[in-house]
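Write out this protein's structure.
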Amino acid sequence: MNDAQVIHVVWQAIVVAAKLAGPVLLVCLAVGTIVSLLQTVTQVQEMTLTFVPKLVGAALVIVVAGPWMIRQVVGWVQALWTNLPTG
């Protein structure tokens, strides 16, 4: 494997990681923003109040998008094993 191939594999790994983390991070960002707005409006400043909705949102995303996430990882690993030099 030369340098260009290693860089390509690392780049693919970063892209797959971003695709997998993106939906969870976006949901946590949206839920956190909504809870923060509600806390501001109601003047309830409880720090633990933001944790549970984010956790539930992340769990829902993983349940809903889990099969897609697994297919992405399996596809990347299969492509990686296919493209490895045989020796």
